[in-house]
Amino acid sequence: MQFNTHSPIYLQIAGYIHDLILNGIWTDGERIPSVRDLAVELEVNPNTIVRTYAVLQEEGTLDNQRGIGYFTAPHAKDLVLKKKREQFIKTELPSLFSSLKVLDIPLEELETYYRTFQKDAQSNENKDETK
Amino acid sequence: MQFNTHSPIYLQIAGYIHDLILNGIWTDGERIPSVRDLAVELEVNPNTIVRTYAVLQEEGTLDNQRGIGYFTAPHAKDLVLKKKREQFIKTELPSLFSSLKVLDIPLEELETYYRTFQKDAQSNENKDETK
Amino acid sequence: MQFNTHSPIYLQIAGYIHDLILNGIWTDGERIPSVRDLAVELEVNPNTIVRTYAVLQEEGTLDNQRGIGYFTAPHAKDLVLKKKREQFIKTELPSLFSSLKVLDIPLEELETYYRTFQKDAQSNENKDETK
Amino acid sequence: MQFNTHSPIYLQIAGYIHDLILNGIWTDGERIPSVRDLAVELEVNPNTIVRTYAVLQEEGTLDNQRGIGYFTAPHAKDLVLKKKREQFIKTELPSLFSSLKVLDIPLEELETYYRTFQKDAQSNENKDETK
DNA sequence: GTGGTCTAGACCACC
DNA sequence: GTGGTCTAGACCACA
Predict the structure, then answer these.
(1) Would residue D68 count as lying in a domain?
(2) Nearest chain C residue to D42, by CA
(3) Beta pairing partners, A13
(4) C102 and C55 in one domain?
(5) Percent of chain B having pLDDT more than 90?
(6) Is C97's Cβ below 8 Å from some Cβ in D?
(7) Looking at the domain assignment, is residue C2 inside a domain?
(8) Angle CA(B9)–CA(B10)–CA(B16) in degrees, nearest 5?
(9) pLDDT in tens, A52-64
(10) Could you tell me what percent of chain A has a pLDDT over 70?
(11) Residue D62 host element (H or E)
(12) Closest partner residue to D12 among C3, C93, C111, by Cβ?
Protein backbone atom coordinates (compact mmCIF):
# COMPACT_ATOMS: atom_id res chain seq x y z
CA MET A 1 0.00 0.00 0.00
CA GLN A 2 1.23 3.46 -0.90
CA PHE A 3 0.67 6.46 1.35
CA ASN A 4 1.43 10.13 0.91
CA THR A 5 1.54 10.12 -2.87
CA HIS A 6 1.13 13.52 -4.57
CA SER A 7 1.39 14.79 -8.04
CA PRO A 8 4.47 17.02 -8.18
CA ILE A 9 3.91 20.64 -7.27
CA TYR A 10 4.69 21.96 -10.76
CA LEU A 11 1.86 19.84 -12.14
CA GLN A 12 -0.50 20.92 -9.39
CA ILE A 13 0.22 24.50 -10.39
CA ALA A 14 -0.38 23.64 -14.06
CA GLY A 15 -3.82 22.36 -13.08
CA TYR A 16 -4.41 25.53 -11.09
CA ILE A 17 -3.58 27.63 -14.15
CA HIS A 18 -5.91 25.53 -16.28
CA ASP A 19 -8.68 26.44 -13.88
CA LEU A 20 -7.78 30.14 -14.00
CA ILE A 21 -8.14 30.01 -17.77
CA LEU A 22 -11.33 27.95 -17.74
CA ASN A 23 -12.96 30.32 -15.29
CA GLY A 24 -11.98 33.32 -17.36
CA ILE A 25 -9.67 34.78 -14.76
CA TRP A 26 -6.86 34.62 -17.29
CA THR A 27 -8.28 35.49 -20.72
CA ASP A 28 -6.96 34.42 -24.13
CA GLY A 29 -3.82 36.27 -25.27
CA GLU A 30 -3.37 38.07 -21.98
CA ARG A 31 0.04 38.71 -20.46
CA ILE A 32 0.45 36.61 -17.31
CA PRO A 33 2.63 37.04 -14.22
CA SER A 34 6.36 36.62 -14.57
CA VAL A 35 7.96 33.45 -13.25
CA ARG A 36 9.38 35.42 -10.37
CA ASP A 37 6.06 37.09 -9.45
CA LEU A 38 4.00 33.93 -9.56
CA ALA A 39 6.66 32.15 -7.50
CA VAL A 40 6.33 34.82 -4.83
CA GLU A 41 2.53 34.74 -4.94
CA LEU A 42 2.34 30.96 -4.59
CA GLU A 43 5.26 30.85 -2.14
CA VAL A 44 7.13 28.41 -4.29
CA ASN A 45 10.63 28.11 -5.73
CA PRO A 46 10.90 30.03 -9.06
CA ASN A 47 12.34 26.92 -10.73
CA THR A 48 9.04 25.18 -10.04
CA ILE A 49 7.16 27.85 -12.00
CA VAL A 50 9.71 27.63 -14.80
CA ARG A 51 8.88 23.96 -15.09
CA THR A 52 5.14 24.61 -14.98
CA TYR A 53 5.31 27.27 -17.72
CA ALA A 54 7.47 24.95 -19.84
CA VAL A 55 4.85 22.21 -19.63
CA LEU A 56 2.04 24.61 -20.48
CA GLN A 57 3.99 26.07 -23.38
CA GLU A 58 4.71 22.57 -24.66
CA GLU A 59 1.01 21.73 -24.68
CA GLY A 60 0.19 25.03 -26.42
CA THR A 61 -1.62 26.76 -23.59
CA LEU A 62 1.03 29.43 -23.15
CA ASP A 63 3.23 31.40 -25.54
CA ASN A 64 6.56 32.96 -24.65
CA GLN A 65 8.07 36.11 -26.16
CA ARG A 66 11.71 36.23 -25.23
CA GLY A 67 12.57 39.26 -23.18
CA ILE A 68 8.92 40.25 -22.79
CA GLY A 69 7.19 37.51 -20.87
CA TYR A 70 4.56 34.80 -20.99
CA PHE A 71 1.10 35.10 -22.57
CA THR A 72 -1.88 32.82 -22.74
CA ALA A 73 -2.29 31.43 -26.25
CA PRO A 74 -4.90 32.96 -28.56
CA HIS A 75 -7.27 30.00 -28.11
CA ALA A 76 -6.04 28.93 -24.69
CA LYS A 77 -9.50 28.52 -23.20
CA ASP A 78 -10.79 26.26 -25.97
CA LEU A 79 -7.61 24.24 -25.85
CA VAL A 80 -7.80 23.73 -22.10
CA LEU A 81 -11.48 22.94 -22.31
CA LYS A 82 -10.84 20.24 -24.90
CA LYS A 83 -7.97 18.80 -22.87
CA LYS A 84 -9.94 18.70 -19.63
CA ARG A 85 -12.97 17.17 -21.31
CA GLU A 86 -10.86 14.35 -22.75
CA GLN A 87 -9.18 13.75 -19.43
CA PHE A 88 -12.52 13.87 -17.63
CA ILE A 89 -14.13 11.36 -19.95
CA LYS A 90 -11.17 9.03 -20.07
CA THR A 91 -10.22 8.91 -16.39
CA GLU A 92 -12.86 10.46 -14.14
CA LEU A 93 -16.01 9.07 -15.68
CA PRO A 94 -15.02 5.39 -15.36
CA SER A 95 -14.22 5.87 -11.69
CA LEU A 96 -17.50 7.71 -11.23
CA PHE A 97 -19.45 4.93 -12.89
CA SER A 98 -17.74 2.25 -10.89
CA SER A 99 -18.61 4.19 -7.71
CA LEU A 100 -22.23 4.33 -8.82
CA LYS A 101 -22.18 0.61 -9.38
CA VAL A 102 -20.57 -0.28 -6.05
CA LEU A 103 -22.86 2.11 -4.17
CA ASP A 104 -25.87 0.85 -6.11
CA ILE A 105 -26.96 4.31 -7.20
CA PRO A 106 -28.93 4.30 -10.49
CA LEU A 107 -28.29 7.05 -13.04
CA GLU A 108 -31.85 8.29 -12.55
CA GLU A 109 -31.01 9.17 -8.94
CA LEU A 110 -28.13 11.28 -10.23
CA GLU A 111 -30.56 13.33 -12.28
CA THR A 112 -32.60 14.14 -9.21
CA TYR A 113 -29.55 15.41 -7.36
CA TYR A 114 -28.50 17.31 -10.48
CA ARG A 115 -31.72 19.31 -10.53
CA THR A 116 -31.29 20.15 -6.84
CA PHE A 117 -27.72 21.25 -7.54
CA GLN A 118 -28.79 23.51 -10.40
CA LYS A 119 -31.52 25.13 -8.32
CA ASP A 120 -29.03 25.79 -5.51
CA ALA A 121 -26.51 27.26 -7.93
CA GLN A 122 -29.15 29.55 -9.39
CA SER A 123 -30.32 30.83 -6.01
CA ASN A 124 -26.69 31.57 -5.13
CA GLU A 125 -26.29 33.59 -8.28
CA ASN A 126 -29.35 35.60 -7.41
CA LYS A 127 -27.87 36.32 -4.02
CA ASP A 128 -24.68 37.52 -5.69
CA GLU A 129 -26.64 39.90 -7.88
CA THR A 130 -28.41 41.35 -4.88
CA LYS A 131 -25.08 42.16 -3.24
CA MET B 1 -2.40 27.57 -2.48
CA GLN B 2 -2.28 24.21 -0.79
CA PHE B 3 0.19 21.50 -1.76
CA ASN B 4 0.86 18.34 0.21
CA THR B 5 -2.73 17.63 1.21
CA HIS B 6 -2.85 14.18 2.81
CA SER B 7 -5.34 12.40 4.89
CA PRO B 8 -3.47 10.68 7.73
CA ILE B 9 -2.35 7.11 7.11
CA TYR B 10 -4.66 5.63 9.72
CA LEU B 11 -7.65 7.12 7.88
CA GLN B 12 -6.36 6.02 4.49
CA ILE B 13 -6.21 2.50 5.88
CA ALA B 14 -9.74 2.88 7.24
CA GLY B 15 -10.88 3.79 3.74
CA TYR B 16 -8.99 0.83 2.35
CA ILE B 17 -10.78 -1.47 4.80
CA HIS B 18 -14.12 0.06 3.84
CA ASP B 19 -13.37 -0.97 0.27
CA LEU B 20 -12.37 -4.48 1.31
CA ILE B 21 -15.74 -4.82 3.00
CA LEU B 22 -17.71 -3.23 0.16
CA ASN B 23 -16.09 -5.52 -2.37
CA GLY B 24 -16.83 -8.57 -0.27
CA ILE B 25 -13.18 -9.39 0.37
CA TRP B 26 -13.87 -9.15 4.08
CA THR B 27 -17.33 -10.60 4.74
CA ASP B 28 -19.67 -9.73 7.60
CA GLY B 29 -18.71 -11.22 10.97
CA GLU B 30 -15.40 -12.56 9.71
CA ARG B 31 -12.22 -12.50 11.78
CA ILE B 32 -9.78 -10.00 10.34
CA PRO B 33 -5.98 -9.78 10.60
CA SER B 34 -4.51 -9.04 14.00
CA VAL B 35 -3.14 -5.57 14.62
CA ARG B 36 0.41 -6.80 14.31
CA ASP B 37 -0.20 -8.84 11.17
CA LEU B 38 -1.87 -6.03 9.28
CA ALA B 39 0.87 -3.69 10.42
CA VAL B 40 3.46 -5.99 8.89
CA GLU B 41 1.45 -6.43 5.70
CA LEU B 42 0.96 -2.70 5.15
CA GLU B 43 4.42 -1.85 6.46
CA VAL B 44 3.25 0.60 9.09
CA ASN B 45 3.65 0.81 12.83
CA PRO B 46 1.25 -1.38 14.86
CA ASN B 47 0.01 1.70 16.70
CA THR B 48 -1.23 3.10 13.43
CA ILE B 49 -3.38 0.01 12.89
CA VAL B 50 -4.58 0.23 16.49
CA ARG B 51 -5.83 3.70 15.70
CA THR B 52 -7.50 2.60 12.47
CA TYR B 53 -9.25 -0.30 14.16
CA ALA B 54 -10.35 1.99 17.01
CA VAL B 55 -11.96 4.39 14.53
CA LEU B 56 -13.72 1.57 12.71
CA GLN B 57 -14.94 0.05 15.97
CA GLU B 58 -16.21 3.45 17.08
CA GLU B 59 -18.25 3.82 13.90
CA GLY B 60 -19.62 0.28 14.28
CA THR B 61 -17.82 -1.35 11.36
CA LEU B 62 -15.69 -3.60 13.56
CA ASP B 63 -16.22 -5.52 16.80
CA ASN B 64 -13.53 -6.97 19.00
CA GLN B 65 -13.07 -9.53 21.70
CA ARG B 66 -10.20 -8.89 24.09
CA GLY B 67 -7.49 -11.47 23.77
CA ILE B 68 -9.08 -12.94 20.64
CA GLY B 69 -9.00 -10.37 17.89
CA TYR B 70 -11.05 -8.09 15.67
CA PHE B 71 -14.08 -9.06 13.61
CA THR B 72 -16.17 -7.26 11.03
CA ALA B 73 -19.55 -6.36 12.51
CA PRO B 74 -22.59 -8.50 11.61
CA HIS B 75 -23.92 -5.84 9.21
CA ALA B 76 -20.61 -4.22 8.36
CA LYS B 77 -21.23 -4.16 4.62
CA ASP B 78 -24.61 -2.44 4.87
CA LEU B 79 -23.21 0.06 7.32
CA VAL B 80 -20.26 0.94 5.12
CA LEU B 81 -22.47 1.14 2.06
CA LYS B 82 -24.77 3.60 3.81
CA LYS B 83 -21.82 5.67 5.01
CA LYS B 84 -20.16 5.81 1.60
CA ARG B 85 -23.40 6.72 -0.16
CA GLU B 86 -23.97 9.65 2.16
CA GLN B 87 -20.41 10.82 1.74
CA PHE B 88 -20.61 10.41 -2.03
CA ILE B 89 -23.81 12.41 -2.36
CA LYS B 90 -22.71 15.13 0.01
CA THR B 91 -19.16 15.73 -1.20
CA GLU B 92 -18.40 14.02 -4.52
CA LEU B 93 -21.58 14.77 -6.45
CA PRO B 94 -21.34 18.56 -6.09
CA SER B 95 -17.78 18.53 -7.40
CA LEU B 96 -18.87 16.27 -10.25
CA PHE B 97 -21.71 18.59 -11.18
CA SER B 98 -19.52 21.64 -11.07
CA SER B 99 -17.06 19.86 -13.39
CA LEU B 100 -19.91 19.11 -15.78
CA LYS B 101 -20.88 22.75 -15.72
CA VAL B 102 -17.39 24.09 -16.31
CA LEU B 103 -16.70 21.56 -19.05
CA ASP B 104 -20.13 22.22 -20.54
CA ILE B 105 -21.11 18.55 -20.59
CA PRO B 106 -24.89 18.01 -20.42
CA LEU B 107 -26.22 15.19 -18.28
CA GLU B 108 -27.55 13.46 -21.38
CA GLU B 109 -24.00 13.02 -22.63
CA LEU B 110 -23.17 11.27 -19.36
CA GLU B 111 -25.90 8.74 -20.05
CA THR B 112 -24.33 7.86 -23.39
CA TYR B 113 -20.97 7.18 -21.78
CA TYR B 114 -22.73 5.24 -19.02
CA ARG B 115 -24.24 2.82 -21.50
CA THR B 116 -20.83 2.26 -23.09
CA PHE B 117 -19.35 1.66 -19.66
CA GLN B 118 -22.01 -0.88 -18.78
CA LYS B 119 -21.51 -2.77 -22.04
CA ASP B 120 -17.75 -2.91 -21.43
CA ALA B 121 -18.28 -4.13 -17.89
CA GLN B 122 -20.61 -6.85 -19.11
CA SER B 123 -18.25 -8.09 -21.77
CA ASN B 124 -15.52 -8.27 -19.13
CA GLU B 125 -17.75 -10.41 -16.95
CA ASN B 126 -18.37 -12.75 -19.84
CA LYS B 127 -14.64 -13.09 -20.30
CA ASP B 128 -14.31 -14.00 -16.65
CA GLU B 129 -16.91 -16.69 -16.99
CA THR B 130 -15.18 -18.10 -20.04
CA LYS B 131 -11.94 -18.44 -18.08
CA MET C 1 -1.92 13.86 40.14
CA GLN C 2 -1.65 10.24 41.19
CA PHE C 3 -2.53 7.40 38.86
CA ASN C 4 -2.68 3.66 39.34
CA THR C 5 -3.19 3.75 43.09
CA HIS C 6 -4.62 0.60 44.64
CA SER C 7 -5.21 -0.57 48.11
CA PRO C 8 -2.74 -3.39 48.69
CA ILE C 9 -3.93 -6.83 47.68
CA TYR C 10 -4.00 -8.16 51.26
CA LEU C 11 -6.49 -5.44 52.17
CA GLN C 12 -8.57 -6.08 49.06
CA ILE C 13 -8.80 -9.70 50.17
CA ALA C 14 -9.76 -8.62 53.68
CA GLY C 15 -12.65 -6.67 52.18
CA TYR C 16 -13.60 -9.68 50.12
CA ILE C 17 -13.72 -11.83 53.28
CA HIS C 18 -15.84 -9.20 55.02
CA ASP C 19 -18.34 -9.59 52.21
CA LEU C 20 -18.28 -13.38 52.45
CA ILE C 21 -19.19 -13.05 56.11
CA LEU C 22 -21.82 -10.37 55.57
CA ASN C 23 -23.52 -12.42 52.89
CA GLY C 24 -23.55 -15.50 55.09
CA ILE C 25 -21.21 -17.49 52.89
CA TRP C 26 -18.86 -17.86 55.83
CA THR C 27 -20.97 -18.27 58.99
CA ASP C 28 -20.01 -17.41 62.56
CA GLY C 29 -17.56 -19.82 64.18
CA GLU C 30 -16.97 -21.79 61.01
CA ARG C 31 -13.58 -23.19 60.04
CA ILE C 32 -12.23 -21.32 57.01
CA PRO C 33 -9.75 -22.32 54.31
CA SER C 34 -6.11 -22.69 55.24
CA VAL C 35 -3.70 -19.99 54.22
CA ARG C 36 -2.31 -22.31 51.56
CA ASP C 37 -5.73 -23.26 50.15
CA LEU C 38 -7.04 -19.74 49.94
CA ALA C 39 -3.78 -18.64 48.34
CA VAL C 40 -4.27 -21.25 45.63
CA GLU C 41 -7.93 -20.36 45.15
CA LEU C 42 -7.24 -16.65 44.76
CA GLU C 43 -4.01 -17.24 42.80
CA VAL C 44 -2.02 -15.20 45.25
CA ASN C 45 1.20 -15.60 47.18
CA PRO C 46 0.52 -17.41 50.54
CA ASN C 47 2.32 -14.65 52.42
CA THR C 48 -0.38 -12.26 51.21
CA ILE C 49 -3.06 -14.41 52.85
CA VAL C 50 -0.99 -14.63 56.03
CA ARG C 51 -1.06 -10.86 56.17
CA THR C 52 -4.79 -10.71 55.48
CA TYR C 53 -5.63 -13.24 58.20
CA ALA C 54 -3.38 -11.36 60.63
CA VAL C 55 -5.28 -8.15 60.02
CA LEU C 56 -8.65 -9.85 60.40
CA GLN C 57 -7.53 -11.59 63.59
CA GLU C 58 -6.26 -8.29 64.96
CA GLU C 59 -9.67 -6.67 64.41
CA GLY C 60 -11.45 -9.66 65.97
CA THR C 61 -13.11 -11.06 62.89
CA LEU C 62 -11.07 -14.26 62.87
CA ASP C 63 -9.73 -16.57 65.58
CA ASN C 64 -6.74 -18.84 65.19
CA GLN C 65 -6.19 -22.16 66.90
CA ARG C 66 -2.55 -23.10 66.52
CA GLY C 67 -2.04 -26.32 64.67
CA ILE C 68 -5.70 -26.50 63.70
CA GLY C 69 -6.49 -23.49 61.56
CA TYR C 70 -8.47 -20.29 61.31
CA PHE C 71 -12.12 -19.81 62.29
CA THR C 72 -14.54 -16.94 61.99
CA ALA C 73 -15.18 -15.38 65.40
CA PRO C 74 -18.41 -16.25 67.25
CA HIS C 75 -19.97 -12.88 66.43
CA ALA C 76 -18.02 -12.21 63.27
CA LYS C 77 -21.03 -11.14 61.24
CA ASP C 78 -22.23 -8.57 63.77
CA LEU C 79 -18.73 -7.25 64.16
CA VAL C 80 -18.19 -6.85 60.43
CA LEU C 81 -21.60 -5.28 60.03
CA LYS C 82 -20.82 -2.71 62.70
CA LYS C 83 -17.43 -1.98 61.16
CA LYS C 84 -18.79 -1.58 57.68
CA ARG C 85 -21.62 0.64 58.82
CA GLU C 86 -19.24 2.96 60.58
CA GLN C 87 -16.94 3.08 57.60
CA PHE C 88 -19.88 3.65 55.27
CA ILE C 89 -21.26 6.52 57.29
CA LYS C 90 -17.91 8.14 57.90
CA THR C 91 -16.39 7.95 54.43
CA GLU C 92 -18.89 6.95 51.77
CA LEU C 93 -21.88 9.05 52.80
CA PRO C 94 -20.06 12.39 52.68
CA SER C 95 -18.78 11.64 49.18
CA LEU C 96 -22.29 10.55 48.16
CA PHE C 97 -23.81 13.73 49.53
CA SER C 98 -21.24 15.91 47.85
CA SER C 99 -22.00 14.12 44.56
CA LEU C 100 -25.69 14.82 45.06
CA LYS C 101 -24.90 18.46 45.65
CA VAL C 102 -22.62 18.87 42.65
CA LEU C 103 -25.02 17.00 40.38
CA ASP C 104 -27.95 18.94 41.81
CA ILE C 105 -29.95 15.83 42.68
CA PRO C 106 -32.38 16.37 45.61
CA LEU C 107 -32.78 13.62 48.18
CA GLU C 108 -36.41 13.17 47.12
CA GLU C 109 -35.22 12.04 43.71
CA LEU C 110 -33.13 9.39 45.40
CA GLU C 111 -36.23 7.97 47.04
CA THR C 112 -37.88 7.56 43.66
CA TYR C 113 -34.94 5.59 42.33
CA TYR C 114 -34.86 3.59 45.56
CA ARG C 115 -38.39 2.36 45.07
CA THR C 116 -37.58 1.33 41.51
CA PHE C 117 -34.50 -0.50 42.76
CA GLN C 118 -36.50 -2.38 45.41
CA LYS C 119 -39.14 -3.43 42.91
CA ASP C 120 -36.46 -4.71 40.53
CA ALA C 121 -34.74 -6.61 43.33
CA GLN C 122 -38.04 -8.22 44.35
CA SER C 123 -38.90 -9.31 40.84
CA ASN C 124 -35.46 -10.86 40.54
CA GLU C 125 -36.02 -12.83 43.73
CA ASN C 126 -39.30 -14.12 42.38
CA LYS C 127 -37.54 -15.30 39.27
CA ASP C 128 -35.01 -17.12 41.43
CA GLU C 129 -37.77 -18.89 43.32
CA THR C 130 -39.38 -20.02 40.11
CA LYS C 131 -36.15 -21.65 38.99
CA MET D 1 -10.75 -12.39 41.94
CA GLN D 2 -9.63 -9.19 40.26
CA PHE D 3 -6.83 -7.06 41.60
CA ASN D 4 -5.18 -4.17 39.78
CA THR D 5 -8.33 -2.73 38.23
CA HIS D 6 -7.43 0.62 36.66
CA SER D 7 -9.05 2.86 34.22
CA PRO D 8 -6.38 4.05 31.79
CA ILE D 9 -4.59 7.27 32.65
CA TYR D 10 -6.03 9.18 29.69
CA LEU D 11 -9.55 8.45 30.97
CA GLN D 12 -8.64 9.31 34.56
CA ILE D 13 -7.46 12.67 33.26
CA ALA D 14 -10.71 13.05 31.32
CA GLY D 15 -12.59 12.50 34.57
CA TYR D 16 -10.34 15.00 36.32
CA ILE D 17 -11.15 17.57 33.63
CA HIS D 18 -14.85 16.85 33.99
CA ASP D 19 -14.51 17.76 37.64
CA LEU D 20 -12.57 20.94 36.86
CA ILE D 21 -15.46 21.99 34.62
CA LEU D 22 -18.17 20.94 37.06
CA ASN D 23 -16.53 22.87 39.86
CA GLY D 24 -16.20 25.96 37.72
CA ILE D 25 -12.40 25.91 37.74
CA TRP D 26 -12.49 25.77 33.95
CA THR D 27 -15.38 27.92 32.73
CA ASP D 28 -17.33 27.56 29.49
CA GLY D 29 -15.49 28.72 26.39
CA GLU D 30 -12.23 29.31 28.20
CA ARG D 31 -8.85 28.49 26.70
CA ILE D 32 -7.30 25.53 28.50
CA PRO D 33 -3.67 24.47 28.90
CA SER D 34 -1.82 23.33 25.78
CA VAL D 35 -1.20 19.63 25.33
CA ARG D 36 2.45 20.04 26.27
CA ASP D 37 1.77 22.24 29.31
CA LEU D 38 -0.81 19.92 30.82
CA ALA D 39 1.50 16.99 30.14
CA VAL D 40 4.25 18.68 32.13
CA GLU D 41 1.87 19.65 34.91
CA LEU D 42 0.44 16.13 35.30
CA GLU D 43 3.81 14.48 34.62
CA VAL D 44 2.60 12.31 31.79
CA ASN D 45 3.58 11.93 28.15
CA PRO D 46 2.11 14.56 25.80
CA ASN D 47 0.56 11.79 23.71
CA THR D 48 -1.52 10.80 26.70
CA ILE D 49 -2.98 14.29 26.91
CA VAL D 50 -3.57 14.27 23.15
CA ARG D 51 -5.67 11.19 23.65
CA THR D 52 -7.60 12.70 26.57
CA TYR D 53 -8.32 15.90 24.63
CA ALA D 54 -9.41 13.84 21.61
CA VAL D 55 -11.92 11.92 23.75
CA LEU D 56 -13.28 15.10 25.29
CA GLN D 57 -13.55 16.78 21.90
CA GLU D 58 -15.35 13.73 20.51
CA GLU D 59 -17.94 13.91 23.32
CA GLY D 60 -18.38 17.65 22.76
CA THR D 61 -16.80 18.90 25.97
CA LEU D 62 -13.87 20.56 24.21
CA ASP D 63 -13.39 22.47 20.96
CA ASN D 64 -10.10 23.25 19.29
CA GLN D 65 -8.61 25.60 16.77
CA ARG D 66 -5.59 24.30 14.86
CA GLY D 67 -2.47 26.19 15.69
CA ILE D 68 -4.20 28.03 18.54
CA GLY D 69 -5.17 25.58 21.21
CA TYR D 70 -8.03 23.86 23.00
CA PHE D 71 -11.08 25.53 24.54
CA THR D 72 -13.93 24.30 26.68
CA ALA D 73 -17.12 24.15 24.65
CA PRO D 74 -19.73 26.93 25.04
CA HIS D 75 -22.01 24.68 27.14
CA ALA D 76 -19.35 22.38 28.50
CA LYS D 77 -20.58 22.53 32.08
CA ASP D 78 -24.17 21.61 31.24
CA LEU D 79 -22.98 18.82 29.01
CA VAL D 80 -20.72 17.36 31.67
CA LEU D 81 -23.40 17.71 34.31
CA LYS D 82 -25.88 15.78 32.18
CA LYS D 83 -23.30 13.08 31.46
CA LYS D 84 -22.32 12.66 35.09
CA ARG D 85 -25.92 12.52 36.28
CA GLU D 86 -26.73 9.74 33.86
CA GLN D 87 -23.64 7.81 34.86
CA PHE D 88 -24.36 8.35 38.56
CA ILE D 89 -27.93 7.13 38.33
CA LYS D 90 -27.10 4.16 36.17
CA THR D 91 -24.02 2.83 37.94
CA GLU D 92 -23.45 4.41 41.34
CA LEU D 93 -26.97 4.45 42.72
CA PRO D 94 -27.52 0.68 42.39
CA SER D 95 -24.30 -0.03 44.26
CA LEU D 96 -25.32 2.49 46.92
CA PHE D 97 -28.71 0.88 47.35
CA SER D 98 -27.27 -2.58 47.59
CA SER D 99 -24.88 -1.33 50.29
CA LEU D 100 -27.85 0.10 52.18
CA LYS D 101 -29.58 -3.24 51.95
CA VAL D 102 -26.60 -5.31 53.09
CA LEU D 103 -25.84 -2.90 55.93
CA ASP D 104 -29.51 -2.76 56.82
CA ILE D 105 -29.67 1.04 56.73
CA PRO D 106 -33.15 2.37 55.94
CA LEU D 107 -33.45 5.36 53.64
CA GLU D 108 -34.84 7.43 56.49
CA GLU D 109 -31.53 7.14 58.31
CA LEU D 110 -29.83 8.56 55.22
CA GLU D 111 -31.99 11.65 55.47
CA THR D 112 -30.83 12.26 59.02
CA TYR D 113 -27.20 12.14 57.99
CA TYR D 114 -28.01 14.33 55.01
CA ARG D 115 -29.31 17.10 57.23
CA THR D 116 -26.17 16.94 59.35
CA PHE D 117 -24.05 17.10 56.21
CA GLN D 118 -25.90 20.13 54.95
CA LYS D 119 -25.51 21.96 58.26
CA ASP D 120 -21.76 21.24 58.24
CA ALA D 121 -21.44 22.44 54.68
CA GLN D 122 -23.25 25.65 55.52
CA SER D 123 -21.09 26.43 58.53
CA ASN D 124 -18.02 25.86 56.35
CA GLU D 125 -19.32 28.37 53.85
CA ASN D 126 -19.80 30.90 56.61
CA LYS D 127 -16.21 30.37 57.66
CA ASP D 128 -15.11 31.03 54.11
CA GLU D 129 -17.01 34.27 54.02
CA THR D 130 -15.42 35.36 57.28
CA LYS D 131 -11.96 34.84 55.81
C1' DG E 1 -1.21 -15.39 21.17
C1' DT E 2 -4.51 -11.15 21.35
C1' DG E 3 -5.48 -6.00 22.02
C1' DG E 4 -4.62 -1.74 25.17
C1' DT E 5 -1.77 1.66 27.04
C1' DC E 6 2.16 4.51 27.78
C1' DT E 7 6.58 6.63 26.80
C1' DA E 8 10.16 8.93 24.14
C1' DG E 9 11.22 11.33 20.41
C1' DA E 10 10.63 12.86 15.77
C1' DC E 11 8.54 15.52 11.94
C1' DC E 12 4.75 18.09 9.93
C1' DA E 13 1.25 21.84 9.03
C1' DC E 14 -0.89 25.80 10.73
C1' DC E 15 -0.77 30.54 12.85
C1' DG F 1 4.04 28.75 19.55
C1' DT F 2 -0.08 25.28 18.62
C1' DG F 3 -2.04 20.48 17.67
C1' DG F 4 -1.62 16.05 14.66
C1' DT F 5 0.66 12.05 13.24
C1' DC F 6 3.90 8.37 13.14
C1' DT F 7 7.48 5.34 14.84
C1' DA F 8 9.95 2.32 18.04
C1' DG F 9 9.75 -0.17 21.82
C1' DA F 10 8.05 -1.42 26.26
C1' DC F 11 4.76 -3.47 29.61
C1' DC F 12 0.18 -5.06 30.90
C1' DA F 13 -4.21 -7.90 31.12
C1' DC F 14 -6.85 -11.31 29.03
C1' DA F 15 -7.42 -16.00 27.05
Answers:
(1) yes
(2) C1
(3) none
(4) no
(5) 63
(6) yes
(7) no
(8) 85
(9) 999 999 999 999 9
(10) 96
(11) strand D62-65
(12) C3
